[in-house]
Amino acid sequence: MNFELSEDQAMLKDTADRLFAQAAGDPSGDLWARMAELGLLAAPFAEQDGGFGLGPVETMILAEAAGRAQVLTPYASSIVAAGTALRLAPVPPSGLIAGLAAGEVQFAWGHEELGMPSGQARRTRARSSGDGWILSGRKTNVVHVAGDARLVVTATTDSGPIVLLVPLDAQGVSRRDYQLFDGTPASEISFYEVVVEAGAVLAHGPDAVTLTERAREHLVAFRASEAVGLMQALLDATLEHLRTRRQFGEPLSSFQALRHKAADMLVALEQARSMAMLAALSVEDAEAETRRKTIAQVRTVVAKACKLVGQAAVQLHGGIGVTEEHPVGRGFRQLTLIDLEMERG
């Protein structure tokens, strides 16, 4: 699959490439503020909500640029997953969306639970109390949780699933911070008898099922494109290593077995690229079953490609490929996490 970017999309790609390249060289800089300043946070939201009304293809471009630069940002959780839940809710909270698009409010996606596949009903429970709800449970691997963030939380009620907005500083909310394998900041968020007002409900019942599924689909599409950028970076680094590193008086690129391994990396990358494009073009399809089948295919192909490219890059670099300081080591860890996410669903 191949297509040409429009002029506006090409400009977006150039902007994202420059921004993320600068951020990779200066990890202490405030990347999120720069993304807000350039309007990247507003990209997927409707114009009436303070956004630019761009689509999944533009999101794919941003994801691939971030992956290629190997930067860690809250974009997937805050803008893609939580943002999708906000903008596709039966009654979208326009004020909150505008704050998110402007970088004034940060959201985090609270869905994953220990030992629970993403498609199963959540163990986190919400029970009716007057006009509102009482929330109790625990979410794991909630990434990039800012101190003043709001959480988009999935839970289960006696009458079906529910999606709620919960401020991180609400009474009964606690957190335990840690880092994932690739250095991403993550938190375990616990809820104990947290009072949630009726107005903080994004969706309930069948609407909540649909909303959660749509958020997860958009998240898979984003992570697939991010993986493509990462794999491209690892392939480029590996080819440069094979050209410059010498063994027995010859460059490594002269050895046929190593060339074949690099060719396998390229084939896997291009397969994943095609699937990431397919995800971007299909994630807004009106037919739910079509989206589900496509996303399942994307997860399978991208997961296999992440594993092959990451492991081959480390193998062809030798011991230096697993060090924390080396770009290949960092990329391998990022691809490993994406692989696990894709396999879990």
Automatic annotation (TrEMBL):
One Pfam short name: Acyl-CoA_dh_N
Cofactor: FAD
SUPFAM superfamilies (UniProt xref): Acyl-CoA dehydrogenase C-terminal domain-like, Acyl-CoA dehydrogenase NM domain-like
Statement: the UniProt record of this protein carries the keyword Metal-binding: no
Lineage top rank: taxon: Bacteria
Domain Acyl-CoA dehydrogenase/oxidase C-terminal: start-end pairs: 224-335
Domain Acyl-CoA dehydrogenase/oxidase N-terminal: 26-77
CDD domains recorded: ACAD (cd00567)
Keywords: FAD, Flavoprotein, Oxidoreductase
Protein name per the record: Alkylation response protein AidB-like acyl-CoA dehydrogenase
The species this protein was found in: Caulobacter rhizosphaerae
